[in-house]
Batch of 2 targets.
Target 1
Amino acid sequence: MARLPRLTIPGYPHHIIQRGNNRQAIFGGSSDYELLLGLIDEHARKQHVAVHGYVLMSNHFHLLATPETEEGIPQMMQAVGRRYVRNFNLRHARTGTLWEGRYKSTLIQAERYLLACMVYMDLNPVRAGMVADPADYPWSSYQHYIGRRHDKLLTPHPLYWELGNTPFARDEAYGALVRAGISESEKQALTDSALRGWALGDPDYVADLQRRTDRRVAKVHAGRPPRTKKEQPVPN
């Protein structure tokens, strides 16, 4: 079966996942985390990609980003991936691949899933048992969004600005969202959509996306459509 091309449309938020090959660690220490974040920052700026959120886990990472051009995210991810692997291999005296194939990504409906996706990413270290409080994890965008530090990599999405009229109000509102968490069904939908490449949103959103691209944006059932009443065979 032919590989489904990634879906990339300018002006829409994309959830991106890159995994380590065979679940192996992709970081050997703090300097590797810092290197990857620096490369993402450099190439996001070059390719005009606004990064809204991220989390770097031990064997994979997530990004939430909106590109200005169709090639922005692919070119950013290609440059980041190649440079990071080259530097990682030199630092750790290794050879060969680091990534589990190409990165995975898809579009998500901002109004319905963008903040949920940010919460999902920020809670990843808690779900993995790495920390009890997401604020204690240094390799995600959470500390930025609760006012603990400023992260120059990040461009807050307009939906984040709508959480409050002041920085303090936004920090508190976002922290409350993370403490409330998301449902298991939302978590699964966010994971599956990115890994499988299908757009995540309500039917009107998906239909609007489909008008903007020749690539299928949602899974369709195999086989011919159900017959209408007029098409039903006449009994003998």
Target 2
Amino acid sequence: MEEIQHFESVTQYNAFNNNSTLHPLVSIVHLDKADPRHNRKLRYDFYTVFLKKIHCGDLRYGLANYDYEEGSLIFLAPGQVIGQYNEDYYQPQGLALVFHPDLLVGTTLGKQIDQYHFFSYQVHEALHLSESERKVIGDCFANIEYELEHAIDKHSKQLIISNIELFLNYCTRFYDRQFITRENANKGALVKFEQELNNYFTGDIAQEYGLPAVAYFADKLHMSPNYFGDLIKKETGKSAQEYIQGKLMDMAKIKMHDSEKSIQLIATELGFKYPQHFTRLFKKRIGATPNEYRKTL
């Protein structure tokens, strides 16, 4: 089995990249100080954010088009694996912000960190920065590094966490911008999503797999579930689950025009394991039970 380079602590990752450890739970890592190395799979037990040029060694990847060429941010949650092994040597470049979950224990950011969905995005769903955005991100990194180099006092932890939170909030804004500037590509994804939804209900897929899941369609569109969900929300104003349920109800209403089909058969064709679950959802979404709705046709 292919070996994975596993980093359990911030200190270990700093040493791997020839950086000093100023704080055991958080660091701004200057990757250009690292020795040249092979591409390999890497796993981190802490949050990791890379600020890199689009093409550089371990994070080379292909997108159909780029919004900007100034640089990219790639986000990894603890436990994620990135990269692949080959014999090529490369010189790491750029910066990395790394912080351990223990740093966030008992803080507001610790309670809200799951709201930053981009930590679960795939590498090809990176945030591509304009020149002005890159400067903002650079300032955020510089402020964090300033606090790490400052003598530790009672304000240090709060200021470090506040600057990390500020950085993440800027990233949320910039991702919103990226969804807008990629409107044409997003429209294409929506069209394909609609096609996949139709295929799901008009064939035997629903009966085989059950109710449609967000992850199923994200995989069909080659996206991470969180990126897919955020894209659908930005484009339609609805969550992906709400959008799927709306389509599900539309298909249910169409099927109920066939008076020879029982409610139970319709529920089965739509992927429901139990008819009562179909009845409950239909009434919640439409305001009437399937039988009540059918009487109005």
